[in-house]
Specification:
Number of strands: 0
Number of helices: 9
Order of helices and strands: HHHHHHHHH
Number of domains: 1
Strand content: under 5%
Radius of gyration: 16 Å
Largest sheet: none
Distance between the termini: 47 Å
Shape: elongated
Length: 123
């Protein structure tokens, strides 16, 4: 069944059903980023490289940045921006899912533990 790119339904059910046909329906120019950013991170994380081309061109809604750490950790270097990432809500997700990139995301003003203590506790 061909999916019409103009009729993306911004619900978890729709994304779950259509995630495997991502390239058929996704269009970065017409996609409603404010309604769909969280759904992309949750259901289309395997296609992160396609929808998160570069930090400069993405229209990702950064209110959902913690979902990137939760679901798109393997593409960390593609999406992480310390100026946009929501450390207040998602700092623990960086520790849990992106620990190998601690040298990039760690900021002593955002964590009560030192980098060494975080590494020791994550073992």
């Amino acid at each position: 069944m061909k999916i019409d790119k103009l009729y993306v339904t911004y619900t978890p059910e729709w994304f779950k059903e259509n995630a495997d046909s991502f390239s058929e329906w996704f269009n970065a120019k017409t996609f409603n980023w404010s309604r769909g950013s969280s759904l992309l991170a949750i259901y289309c994380s395997k296609d992160c490289k396609k929808w998160f081309k570069t930090l400069k061109t993405t229209k990702f809604d950064w209110r959902y940045s913690s979902l990137l750490a939760l679901h798109c950790g393997k593409d960390f270097k593609r999406w992480f921006d310390p100026e946009k990432y929501d450390f207040d809500y998602g700092s623990h997700l960086l520790v849990r899912n992106c620990i190998k990139h601690i040298d990039i995301w760690y900021d002593e003003t955002k964590y009560s533990l030192s980098k060494e203590e975080i590494l020791e506790n994550s073992k």
